[in-house]
């Protein structure tokens, strides 16, 4: 059975009809920019993220650039970022003229290391930092990192391109961020029918500045009080997102059900068996012995591929190891945990409305691979 890594075509009944009607309606009125759909979307997003202000924009990379500019990050300012994230987090810093410094991550949750964050703040006195909440979760030390940034006047931007809908301590993860962003790239948790992004904040001045920068620095229509650029979200994208939002909680429930089946049926013990038991920390997270896991990962990739199961390796390289980083990166703080994560991470299919047979097929192949790996290793 073929199981795709992600399938964006599993629409709810009537979804495509509603979308077609909306496209016809907006097109017949030539309502392509701004208007009711964008206003409704921004209101919906503010409610869902538990923020006072939500500003839509052209994509998630722009969202970070707009947020950094609104935070007054300028030429030569130092900005920290996790060494394990998507390249756009790095690009946003460089594109506003600032100087990036990578900080190592923690194996247990992939988030930025609190210890090295504190060290980087002490050593470099950065003006800002970006956190990336990858894979729908965040660092378990999120609040501590926020507090540390606050105490040291480090403006903290939270790149939430992958965590829309996630909760932290029972609240929307974006709620207590100074300023946060998301991406509506189609494969994101909340995806559009093209590119899109948004910025969330409770700070009125930041919200005002972001909106102004995203609209050519306009004070009035032809009066420009700053240099921004065009980063507007089209009305059709906003309409698609509004239709999607009506099904958003069903999609999250469906994802969570699949995740629960994976968790119940996949033998996570294998990771403990192929790593040194002493490396399992108090939270039950496993600091895996990386060479062992790398061998297992290669075997698993081979089996998944042979059995037509899609998988991902997100991300295969750290930021500091990217060729494009060398001309811009000021320094790296910490060790090579992010590198170990990049070398060992393997993402299984998980998307809304996966079927039972699909999930159990993935589980069967993973389990078979574990068994044969263990037999060969004679653990
Ligand atoms: C963590 C992270 N940050 C930023 C982005 C950039 O978003 P976009 O592709 O909408 O510019 C992405 C998208 O892949 C992402 O995953």
Care to describe what's here?
The structure is a single chain. By secondary structure, the protein is α/β, with parallel strands linked by helices. It folds into two domains: 31-245, Type I PLP-dependent aspartate aminotransferase-like (Major domain) (Aspartate Aminotransferase, domain 2, 3-Layer(aba) Sandwich), CATH 3.40.640.10; 249-377, Aspartate Aminotransferase, domain 1. Helix content is 42%, strand content 12%. The strands form three sheets. An eight-stranded mixed sheet has the order 1-9-8-5-4-2-3-12, sandwiched between helices. Strands 6-7 form a two-stranded antiparallel sheet. Strands 10-11 form a two-stranded antiparallel sheet. Helix 2 (35-49) crosses helix 8. Residues 59-61, 85-86, 88-89, 132, 159, 161-162, 183, 185, 195, 197 line the site of pyridoxal-5'-phosphate (PLP).
Please name the defining characteristics of this protein.
alpha/beta, two-stranded antiparallel sheet, eight-stranded mixed β-sheet, 12 strands, binds pyridoxal-5'-phosphate, Aspartate Aminotransferase, domain 2, Aspartate Aminotransferase, domain 1, 2 domains, globular
Structure summarized in a few sentences:
This protein has 379 residues and is an alpha/beta fold.
CATH superfamily of the largest domain: Type I PLP-dependent aspartate aminotransferase-like (Major domain)
Distance between the termini: 31 Å
CA gyration radius, whole angstroms: 22 Å
Largest sheet: 8 strands, mixed
Structural class: alpha/beta
Assign an overall shape.
globular
Ligands present: pyridoxal-5'-phosphate
Biggest sheet, spatial arrangement of strands? 1-9-8-5-4-2-3-12
Give the count of helical stretches: 13
> How many β strands by DSSP?
12
Poorly predicted segments: 275-290
Approximately how much beta-strand content do the residues carry? 5-15%
Mean pLDDT: 92
What is the helix/strand order? HHEHEHEHEHEEEEEHEEHHHHEHH
Proportion in helices: 40-55%
Q: How many structural domains does the protein architecture include? A: 2
> Would you state the CATH class of the largest domain?
Alpha Beta
CATH topology heading of the largest domain: Aspartate Aminotransferase, domain 2
Task: Using the 3D structure, state the CATH architecture of the largest domain.
Answer: 3-Layer(aba) Sandwich
């Amino acid at each position: 059975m073929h199981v795709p890594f992600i399938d964006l075509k599993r629409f709810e009944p009537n979804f495509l009809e509603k979308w077609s009607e909306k496209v016809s309606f907006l097109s017949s009125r030539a309502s392509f920019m701004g208007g009711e759909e964008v206003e409704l979307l921004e209101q919906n997003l503010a409610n869902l993220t538990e923020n006072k202000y939500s500003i839509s924009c052209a994509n998630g990379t722009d969202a970070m650039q707009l947020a950094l500019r609104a935070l007054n990050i300028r030429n030569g300012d130092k900005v920290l970022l996790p060494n394990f994230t998507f390249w756009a987090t790095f690009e946003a810093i460089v594109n506003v003229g600032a100087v990036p410094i990578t900080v190592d991550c923690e194996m247990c949750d992939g988030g930025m290391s609190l210890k090295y964050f504190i060290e980087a703040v002490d050593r470099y006195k950065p003006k800002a930092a970006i956190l990336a909440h990858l894979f729908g979760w965040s660092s378990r030390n999120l609040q501590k990192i926020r507090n540390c940034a606050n105490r040291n006047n480090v403006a903290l931007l939270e790149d939430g391109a992958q965590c829309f809908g996630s909760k932290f301590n029972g609240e929307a993860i974006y709620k207590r961020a100074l300023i946060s962003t998301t991406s509506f790239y189609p494969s994101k948790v909340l995806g559009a029918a093209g590119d899109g992004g948004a910025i969330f904040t409770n700070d009125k001045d930041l919200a005002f500045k972001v909106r102004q920068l995203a609209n050519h620095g306009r004070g009035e229509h032809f009066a420009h009080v700053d240099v921004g650029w065009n980063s507007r979200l089209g009305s059709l994208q906003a309409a698609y997102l509004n239709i999607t939002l009506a099904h958003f909680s069903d999609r999250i429930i469906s994802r969570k059900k699949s995740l629960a089946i994976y968790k119940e049926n996949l033998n996570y013990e294998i990771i403990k068996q192929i790593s040194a038991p002493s490396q399992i920390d108090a939270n039950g997270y496993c600091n895996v012995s990386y060479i062992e896991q790398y061998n297992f990962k290669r075997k698993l990739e081979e089996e998944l591929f042979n059995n037509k199961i899609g998988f991902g390796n997100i991300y295969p390289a750290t930021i500091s190891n990217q060729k494009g980083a060398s001309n811009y990166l000021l320094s790296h703080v910490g060790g090579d945990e992010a590198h170990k994560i990049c070398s060992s991470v393997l993402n299984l299919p998980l998307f809304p409305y996966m079927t039972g047979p699909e999930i159990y097929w993935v589980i069967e192949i993973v389990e078979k691979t574990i068994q044969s790996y263990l037999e060969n290793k004679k653990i």
